[in-house]
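Predict the holo structure. Ligand: adenosine monophosphate.
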Amino acid sequence: MSETQQRLLKLNRMASPIKTKLAYDPVAHATWKEGESIPYLALAHTLRDIEQNSSRLKMIEILSNFLQSVIYLSPKELPTCIYLMLNQLGPAYQGLELGLGDSIIMKAICLATGRQESHIKSELKEKGDLGLIAETSRVNQTLLFKPKPLTVQVVFERLKGIAEMKGQSTQSKKVERVQSLIVACRECEARYIVRSLSGKLRIGLAEQSLLASVARAFVIVENYIRKDKNFSPESEKFKSELEAAAEAVKSAYNRLPNYDILCSVLLEKGIDGLEEGCQSMISVPLKPMLAQPSKGVEEVIKKFGEHKFTCEFKYDGERAQIHRSESGKSYIFSRNQEDTAGKYPDVLREIADYIKPETKSFILDCECVAWDVQEKRILPFQVLSTRKRKTVDDDEIKVKVCLFAFDLLHLNDKSLIKLPLQDRREILKRSFNETPGKFMFAQSRDVDQLEDIQEVLDEAVKNQCEGLMVKALDSTYEIAKRSQYWLKLKKDYLEGVGDTVDAVVIGAYYGKGKRTGNYGGFLLACYDDENEQFQTVCKLGTGFKDEDLEAHTNFLKEHMIEKPKSYYVYDDSLRPDVWFEAVQVWEIKCADLSLSPVHRAAVGVLESKKGISLRFPRYLRVRDDKKPEEATSSAQIVEMYNSQEMLQNNNTENRSD
Ligand code: AMP
């Protein structure tokens, strides 16, 4: 018998009535029995309860209760439940997505319920949610056999089957399959299945809360239900255990973002097994280390203190994480862990040319930059962004690229992330060969004086770079963290023309005059990752070209919602004409930040009733590479506000000298 089976058996043998001080009993309160397939209704009820709650802690408790039952009674279905909760059909980096058009779903609802499409269309205009419409439309198909109740596994397989059907000719088959799913739905199941099908589940559950719920469920099942019957959820011991477990689960997931592997390690080895069981792995993109913005050269010196540091050029391209296995298979992922092999077939083919014979397998962190072959120089980001997303033929490649490698995270079956940067950089240079114009090491200089930083910065700007990345030489690779050991020093900051913020569009105002017919202004929010809320940070109406406005209007129209989400924080005086799902991030430039009585970014942090807002915001571009939860956070807005204040104080001090 395998270790897994033994462990699961141990857990399942405990599946008897449980007496703890917990209100939830994972066996008695579950709606299915040990070893049975999990009914989809149990998952749909959990989604509904989460949707009705806006408190993050309550959401975590609800989800963790359900997961305890899953771990206890049907552990093999744990990853499937997680994927359904997140509206994913597998690991995010595999990119299999659902996004059925409204027309297919409407046809299926008509067939299942006998309703007319025109009625459904007008109801959709009013409610903006096909899920609710499917739930409230009664199925009146005459059925010879009552369909079997849906299970989690069946729903997952069927959703996956539909997503894998490609091409126009499959339309009618898709309608048929959706119809048969709807016919089998009970209670609120149709709401969530239809929303999943259209790729708009959005119940307000952030992935970080899901990971915290997984940790909580395992801590309770492992430590308390089985061993300590006097356990109390209020005890300090439990709280600190929970905190450590959540940290362990989150960092394991950041190293290896794959729920199938995470769950199997947790089920086999428990929380303590994560450190060893979830190490970086070739073919699974790990979350990248990120940098903090910094205001100027003086601030860099101040922040690093005793740490020795290096100034690397900050290239303006697209981040690329390149993996290669021992068998010679290569992969390339974006900053968001998206597989970009289709965009960079040339890079994948040529990567083998740059490796030394001893280099067998690796994970490389680099910036992929547009390159002028004739002039032998870097081209701006705008040129790179014209590269097609999918290239089949080499002749189609008009924009050539050069890789600038700046870190090595994994070499020959060993993770390097715990090594200091100095060592990683040395190993990087030992393991690869530079080829000018194709593969180069990020240019850098180790400096310790203010004047030297300024000199490297000028050099970087002259070389078409955005500025510098200043990195502590003794720092480890801090996955998924905006680390204080990496500071970005952009040339813009120094010119004093203001900072850029990545904000999420959550609403719009109808355009007037020349803008009639399009949206003319927008309401933007930053993301408060502590409370999982989108908090408004500015209204935006400048910086757009006419074609931008039209493109934004067409795109955002598709994401309209009837009313704001419970996790949008705004003042009523700013209420927009239309609300949107939080789906797109925009880069905004502003003159400075100020305290605001109406905007809600970081509300209460600096002054009890005031938030922070951007002054004179201008639109720059869409940040396709960022998810809404990766927008500038409220904490960062506070930091930007504070460092601006500090700078102003310094300037005043200088002036009074
Ligand atoms: P930002 O997107 O402004 O937060 O800047 C961080 C990005 O700069 C990273 O995600 C990389 O794509 C890019 N970058 C360019 N050069 C470097 C470098 N030498 N080290 C790290 N990141 C770099």
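The mean pLDDT is 88. The chain has 22 helices and 22 strands.
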